[in-house]
Design a protein that fits this description.
alpha/beta; single chain; about 25% helix; about 400 residues; 7-stranded mixed beta sheet; 18 strands; 11 helices; Purple Acid Phosphatase, chain A, domain 2
Length: about 400
């Protein structure tokens, strides 16, 4: 994979950012909010446990765009109604992270679905209103509309107060992770993709989107840690489409990220995977949880490589991790609880994203819901997650 230049600017820029935010080195848990981050303040008595929720690919196909138009009454685009079913889970989290797979078109369009996506910028407002704190934007579709697509996407996220990482409008921006704060901890989120569908990086802009490179990820994680981040979350767009099992690249990189340590602690605390379109397993490697693939959170009718419609393309999981503060000086924040929540996009009509456990409870006669729930549970737990403490949230 291509290795991006100017790594040395990352550490310097991040050190300055965290110092300005009151997070010098070494890191000290804070009770005062940072003006540069989405903040959930710690309790007056000090750091507290917090929840981090993450979800899969937001992939607005043409029919999803049409549904948003209908939900807005034919004037504008309302993506919020499609996501209302999971808003209670997302909004209840202290930090919520989405994966925005596509880029946005100009106000008024034209907007397109597969194979080259340009989504309405109103998606950003819906994601913010549902309760997301940040979205990673590194995917194989990040360059579908070149630098203009990246600029419009990040501009729209900025306008609604949604943090982002993984693509950039400038070299300086590329050197900065998303900085999030919850429970008194500073959380650095980094994001990378396996590729961009063969589209070359823009001339003179090798920093436009982060590509997966083991050494670069670890360098960025160390820089974030050294500058004061208490927790490092890495989002990766990887894997083989339509394959339930993680592929060799996923397995190898996950182990390398979980094995790399400094002073007896992992450099990376959590790995969040997207891209495969289907749910994949959660696995705890040493002290690091890896979600190999959450699946598509929002997508239209999905067709696999054989050309057959595949309902797995509308099944996914919501990952929820509770982080607890260090008990003693020199210790790290740790995951004290790991949960998953099955999720499904019901294509109706109308198209609606559902908390699948709740949907089965309300509709016990829906065999399609039950089948999806059992499949998601089986796959998510297929790599020993249950023995490491992973549970299906109720």
């Amino acid at each position: 994979m291509r290795r991006l230049p100017h790594r040395e600017t990352f550490a310097a820029t991040l050190t300055l950012l965290l110092t300005v935010a009151g997070c010098g080195t070494p890191a000290v848990p804070r009770t005062a909010p940072s003006p540069s981050s989405q903040v959930n303040a710690a309790s007056p008595s000090g750091p507290r446990a917090f929840t981090l929720v993450a979800t899969g690919d937001v992939l607005p196909h043409t029919e999803i765009i049409q549904q948003a138009l209908e939900d807005a009454g034919g004037s504008g685009y309302d993506f919020g109604k499609m996501l209302d079913g999971v808003k209670p889970v997302v909004s209840a989290a202290d930090l919520a992270i989405c994966h925005m797979e596509t880029v946005y078109g100009a106000d008024g369009g034209p907007f397109t679905g597969y194979p080259s996506f340009k989504s309405p910028p109103q998606v950003a407002r819906a994601l913010k209103d549902v309760g997301y704190t940040a979205c990673d934007t590194a995917s194989n579709h990040t360059l579908d509309d070149g630098p203009d697509g990246i600029r419009r996407t990040l501009d729209a996220m900025d306008a609604v107060g949604l943090k982002h990482t993984g693509s950039a409008r400038s070299q300086d921006e590329a050197a900065k992770p998303a900085l999030l704060t919850a429970g008194g901890a500073t959380v650095a989120q980094l994001a990378y993709t396996y590729g961009t569908n063969g589209i070359a990086l823009p001339k003179g802009q090798p920093w436009a989107v982060n590509l997966i490179d083991r050494d670069r990820i670890l360098t960025d994680a160390r820089a974030a840690r050294a500058a004061g981040a208490d927790i490092v979350v890495v989002s990766v767009h990887w894997g083989t489409e339509w394959q339930d099992e993680p592929n060799p690249q996923q397995l190898t990189l996950a182990r390398e990220l979980a094995t790399e340590q400094s002073e007896g602690h992992p450099e990376v605390d959590l790995v969040l995977g997207t891209h495969a379109h289907v749910p994949q397993a959660y696995e705890k490697i040493n002290d690091t949880w890896t979600v190999y693939g959450m699946g598509d959170q929002l997508a239209g009718h999905m067709f696999n490589y054989s050309g057959a419609e595949d309902p797995r393309g509308n099944w996914s999981s919501i990952a929820r991790f509770t982080f607890s503060p260090p008990a003693l000086p020199g210790q790290r924040w740790t995951v004290s609880k790991a949960e998953f929540i099955p999720q499904l996009t019901d294509l109706g009509p109308p198209h609606r994203v559902l908390d699948l456990t709740e949907a089965v409870r309300r509709n016990p006669d829906r065999s399609d819901y039950t089948r999806a729930l059992e499949h998601i549970r089986s796959v998510v737990l297929s790599r020993g997650g249950a023995s490491a403490g992973l549970t299906l949230a109720h």
